[in-house]
Specification:
The complex is a heterodimer.
Chain A: E1 2-7, H1 14-24, E2 28-33, E3 44-47, H2 67-77, E4 81-85, H3 87-94, E5 101-103, E6 111-119, E7 135-142, E8 146-148, H4 151-159, E9 163-168, E10 187-191, E11 197-200, H5 218-225
Parallel strand pairs in A: 1-2, 1-3, 3-4, 4-11
Antiparallel strand pairs in A: 5-8, 6-7, 6-9, 9-10, 10-11
Chain B: H1 19-24, H2 29-39, H3 45-54, H4 57-60, H5 65-68, E1 78-80, E2 88-93, E3 96-104, H6 106-111, H7 113-129, E4 134-144, H8 150-170, E5 174-181, E6 190-200, E7 215-220, H9 230-233, H10 254-269, E8 273-278, H11 283-295, E9 298-302, H12 315-320, E10 326-331, H13 336-345, E11 349-357, E12 361-366, E13 369-375, H14 376-380, H15 395-400, H16 430-438, H17 447-450, E14 461-463, E15 471-474, E16 481-487, H18 490-495, H19 497-514, E17 518-527, H20 534-554, E18 558-564, E19 568-569, E20 572-573, E21 577-586, E22 603-607, E23 609-610, H21 618-623, H22 636-651, E24 657-660, H23 665-674, E25 684-686, E26 691-692, H24 699-704, E27 711-715, H25 720-729, E28 734-740, E29 744-747, E30 751-754, H26 755-770
Parallel strand pairs in B: 4-5, 9-12, 17-18, 23-26, 25-29
Antiparallel strand pairs in B: 1-2, 2-3, 3-6, 4-6, 7-10, 7-11, 8-10, 9-11, 12-13, 14-15, 15-16, 16-21, 17-21, 19-20, 22-27, 22-28, 24-27, 25-28, 29-30
Helix pairs in contact in B: 7-8, 7-10, 8-10, 10-13, 16-26, 19-20, 19-22, 22-25
Chain lengths: ~230, ~775
């Protein structure tokens, strides 16, 4: 699998994603600078976490206008596989590749900690190695991860089985107390209609090696590789 | 030096140099006479401003320099010594080196906690990447007033949000630190931030303006009027009117700093850079004269070329501005294009401001007009140096006279509480005492704080904050990891600044050792009151001696740091608080030793001896409300042996866990060791007092006393023999005191609590107070 990691000014999980894909997953991995137009012929595009453009206007709102996003949108529309993590998810929302928007966390504070995610759909290319309902331990680190959308969108996401991950307890139980940011429907990750674009707030690249306390994020990479 | 110096105003009328104006700049008559002698004339307004910031306490260390010289600075791995550059640098092998430093931003944070803390972090990060090192993690050491007071909550909330705002955005994890709450810091909180960077040997950059004719570039953000005179502001006591100084606090832009960081590291790697220095305190003034002074050259700049974000600025303002996210780069002539291209890529300014010149003068032009001309060395290195009068403070007579027998011991549990001892209030049970201590914000879980910091970005954080004695951060591409810790018990230093400072060094290193690391060097942030007060200067001198003696015993250099005086509010001076930051090396990250118990059935040892030492303890302060007694004594020889034994046992893979005993003593250490973030908390049963240093030791001293050089370890039964052999080899007093297991914490017949109760008290202490924060 050939992987391209897009670097926006203010991206700060770009090297984390790069290292995991190249050194842990042994994939050919390239950086793509946001001013470039060549995605370097990838099988997977990663929009990494961080604070693109300082997130000053609204998270991801300026990054969607970066030159490279034209190619990313085209790549996705042609069925190319794209994963947006944290700020990358926010950019996918802003660019219209995924529906909905992010509000500040309910606590109004930035939250960095390990959370539990329940796998809701194992029929996607991002989750085909997972068991239905499998619970993953993956950290979050964001100030605005409170997913919101109008009721039609939520209904559509549910009907089309596009909610991929939900915040849950260690045993997969869903409840407000296990939802760290107040996201609607405990949403942690969703896909587009075609199922080739995934946006998720938790950071699988931070949970891909045992020495970091969890390797559950690898399930997503393994699924993409299979 | 016969050039005419312009004195007439340009944009705004510059004031006349009067005795009042000189005084307002914090320059005393003797210093002014010295300025006249250096210049051979009176300074103009711009020059007066330049001298005032460069000779301020903050930049010149005039009241501390003489004593700081006594620190041990040598070490075989030291690549850049303290005072030579923006930060110290230590070789860690495999062609890698670490750069680290701690700095304070106390005064700005007192006035504007969010931006004060944010820009404090921004400033220390620039000190690291100006050396060519990529900052890889940060720690912070904080002091606030009692957390039950709304002012303290406001400050904590603001400071933590400020650190989070800056650190999270720039993408450098904040992985550890420490915090104390004590009403002595009310009105003058301490915000000390430490950053650690990593570089390859060939990437080390210096802050010297070498090579006549080499162009001087200004890069980064535009210059505004923010932070005017911030260095001078930091060199005064805080008063009730300090809040009117708010314009002296700068506003940080972490996104700009992120771009600046990437651009600077890229340009340093290109080989086009001769010298580089950040613009921190005293901004453009400091960076120009210091780079010239280091190289023994002159430097010339033209303010007409300075990128400005405000109109109508006069040279005085441009030279003294402390606008953030700016750097000065001396470029090798002919390689200007490389530098310009890199900065253009990152959408940043790179403006040629001037050049390196022959001679020793810093010349500041505005177009063709010379607006300041001063020998660079006179500003940077030849500021006044004072040795102040010292006097032992009176209060020590009283605190030393404390008699332990005046304090009632808690009753053995589970007796019901009853009011006893009329004047002293009721006597608590041991169970209740432990729960009360775990509810003390100084001791309790700091999750409320560190969960606001991104502590995992860069995917190197092996020991997450909050559950280990030291932060452990791996170095990708090697088997190695860095361990880091910061420490200072201000109450100890108040009761005995020499012993307190010694203990701060020993404990910070002990934390590293417990995690399996060998200390490389220390950085310090010396927070004290007004040095003109003989009592303050005495404590400062004592603390310096304590740090020096401890470092010599451990064979570890001081590689840099910072002094922050004038930490006084209308209520008086803070505790002497010499915060110590340590960075250590773990050869094999797989052998890093965690702090909490790992396995049911492991045996528990207490290393070191316990004495009747409750002076200066959290127990005496929080339970009995007394700042009294003499601090625990520290025997450096015993401490060194303890470290050797733990390191050897850790390397041999014998230890399941190791936890240093500090605030709250044995009972708190055991409680902490029982807890785990992953929901796998374990109980423990302890049946022994451990090794006693005197015939009889009171139960409260056993449980809550803070005798030094003690560590709690757990290990599998099968490794007991090998472990005891190592303890014997280094003559470490020790006792096999219990076993790990169950769901309760039982300590002899004194304490019996469920781990759940322990956990609840420990985890809720800060959140329950902050819920009501404004």
């Amino acid at each position: 699998m050939k992987v391209s990691v897009v670097v926006f000014p203010g991206s700060n999980c770009d090297s984390d994603c790069f290292n995991v894909m190249r050194d842990v997953m042994q994939c050919e991995t390239n950086y793509v600078w946001h001013k470039d137009h060549d995605l370097k012929n990838p099988d997977l595009v990663i929009l990494p976490g961080g604070f693109s453009y300082g997130d000053y206007l609204r998270c991801g709102a300026i990054a969607r206008f970066s030159p490279v996003m034209k190619e990313v949108v085209q790549f996705a529309n042609n069925g190319g596989t794209v994963i947006g993590i944290c700020n990358g998810f926010q950019i996918l929302l802003e660019s219209g590749l995924l529906p909905g928007a992010m509000l500040p966390n309910k606590s109004l504070k930035f939250i960095c900690k390990h959370v539990w995610l329940k796998t809701e759909n194992t029929g996607t290319k991002f989750t085909n190695r997972l068991k239905s309902g499998q619970v993953l331990r993956i950290p979050i680190a964001h100030g605005e991860g409170n997913y919101t959308a109008d009721s039609d969108t939520i209904k559509k996401l549910k009907d089309e089985n596009r909610i991929i991950f939900r915040y849950a307890s260690e045993n997969g139980e869903l409840a407000d107390r296990y939802n760290p940011n107040g996201a609607m429907e405990h949403i942690a990750g969703i896909t587009n209609e075609k199922g080739n674009v995934l946006g998720m707030m938790p950071h699988p690249e931070r949970a891909s090696e045992d020495i970091l306390g969890s390797h559950d994020g690898r399930w997503i990479w393994e699924s993409l590789l299979s | 030096m016969s050039t005419t110096v312009a004195t007439e105003p340009k944009m705004r009328k510059e004031p006349e140099i009067t005795p009042e104006l000189i005084k307002a700049h914090g320059i005393i008559p003797e210093e002014y006479a010295r300025i006249q002698k250096i210049l051979g004339r009176d300074p103009n307004f711009t020059e007066l401003g330049i001298f005032s910031v460069m000779w301020s306490e903050h930049c010149s260390y005039k009241n501390s320099r003489a004593l700081l010289k006594t620190f041990p600075k040598e070490g075989k791995a030291v690549m850049v010594k303290a005072g030579e550059e923006n930060a110290g640098c230590v070789d860690i092998g495999e062609n890698l080196a670490v750069v680290f430093k701690m700095e304070s931003h106390n005064h700005p944070s007192a006035v504007e906690p969010f931006q004060g803390a944010a820009t404090g972090l921004g400033g220390i990060l620039r000190d690291i990447f100006t050396m060519g090192a990529r900052p890889i993690f940060n720690l912070n050491s904080l002091r606030f007033g009692n957390l039950d007071k709304s002012q303290s909550k406001h400050l904590l909330k603001g400071v933590v949000a400020g650190v989070a705002h800056y650190g999270n955005c720039i993408g450098i994890p904040t992985v550890g630190g420490e915090i104390y709450f004590d009403n002595i810091y009310e009105g003058n909180p301490l915000v000390n931030v430490m950053s650690v960077g990593l570089l390859k040997h060939e990437e080390l950059a210096k802050g010297a303006a070498k090579g006549t004719g080499n162009p001087v570039f200004y890069v980064g953000a535009d210059t505004g009027r923010d932070g005017l005179g911030g260095a001078a502001f930091a060199s005064r006591e805080l008063t009730d009117e300090s809040h009117e100084d708010r314009p002296a606090v700068q506003v940080g832009d972490p996104f700009k700093e992120k771009l600046l960081l990437e651009a600077c590291l890229e340009v340093i790697k290109s080989g086009a850079v001769v010298g580089i220095q950040d613009m921190g305190a005293a901004g453009l003034t400091c960076s120009t004269c210091e780079t010239a002074s280091r190289a023994g050259t002159g430097i010339q700049i033209d303010l007409d070329k300075l990128p400005q974000r405000e109109t109508g600025m006069i040279p005085y303002e441009m030279m003294l501005s402390e606008s953030q996210e700016r750097m000065l780069i001396i470029v090798q002539k002919g390689k200007e294009k490389i530098v310009e291209d890199v900065f253009a890529k990152w959408d940043l300014h790179a403006v040629r401001l001037g050049e390196v010149i022959d001679g020793n003068l810093m010349k500041v032009f505005q177009g063709s007009k010379l607006v300041a001309e001063i020998p660079a060395k006179a500003l940077a290195d030849e500021g006044p140096v004072y040795i102040r009068e010292e006097k032992e403070p009176e209060y020590l007579k009283e605190t030393r006279a404390f008699d332990m027998n005046s304090i009632p011991e808690p009753t053995p549990s589970p007796l019901p509480l009853s009011p006893k001892n009329g004047g002293e209030g009721r006597v608590r049970g041991f169970n209740e005492t432990l729960l009360k201590l775990l509810d003390v914000p100084t001791i309790a879980s700091k999750a409320w704080i560190y969960e606001q910091y991104d502590h995992m970005v860069r995917t190197d954080t092996v020991f997450l904050p909050g559950r280990h004695d030291a932060a452990v951060v791996r170095i990708k591409g090697t088997k190695r990891a860095l361990a880091a810790s910061s420490d200072c018990n201000g109450l100890y230093c108040y009761l005995d600044p020499y012993e307190g400072a010694k203990i701060a060094v020993a404990e910070a290193i002990r934390n590293i050792v417990c995690a399996g690391g060998e200390a490389l060097g220390i950085t310090d942030c010396l927070n004290f009151g007004n040095p003109m007060k003989p009592e303050v200067y005495w404590t400062f001198h004592q603390a310096i001696n304590g740090i020096s003696d401890a470092c010599r015993a451990f064979g570890i250099p001081v590689t840099g740091g910072n002094v922050s005086f004038y930490n006084e509010s209308p209520a008086g001076a803070i505790y002497p608080t010499p915060t110590i930051g340590v960075v250590g090396l773990i050869e094999d990250v797989q052998k890093a030793v965690p702090t909490n118990f790992q396995w049911e059935g492991d045996v528990i040892y207490l290393l070191g001896e316990t004495f009747n030492e409750i002076g200066g303890t959290q127990y005496l302060f929080e339970i009995h409300g007394k700042r009294a007694g003499v601090t625990p004594r520290l025997d450096l020889k015993k401490e060194v042996n303890l470290h050797k034994a733990i390191l050897k046992a850790g390397k041999a893979g014998l230890l399941s866990s190791a936890h240093d005993l500090s605030d709250g003593g044995l009972a708190v250490a055991l409680a902490e060791a029982c807890l785990s973030e992953t929901g796998k908390s374990l109980g423990a049963e302890v049946w022994s007092y451990g090794a006693l240093g005197e015939k009889t030791v009171r139960n409260d001293a056993v449980l809550f006393g803070e005798s030094q050089s003690r560590v709690l370890v757990s290990l599998p039964q099968a490794k007991q023999k090998a472990f005891e052999k190592i303890l014997g080899e280094f003559s470490v007093p020790n006792a096999f005191i219990g076993v790990v297991g169950g769901k309760r914490l039982k300590i002899m017949n004194l304490i019996d609590l469920s781990v759940e109760e322990v956990e609840r008290a420990y985890r809720n202490a800060i959140p329950r107070r902050m819920e009501k924060a404004i």
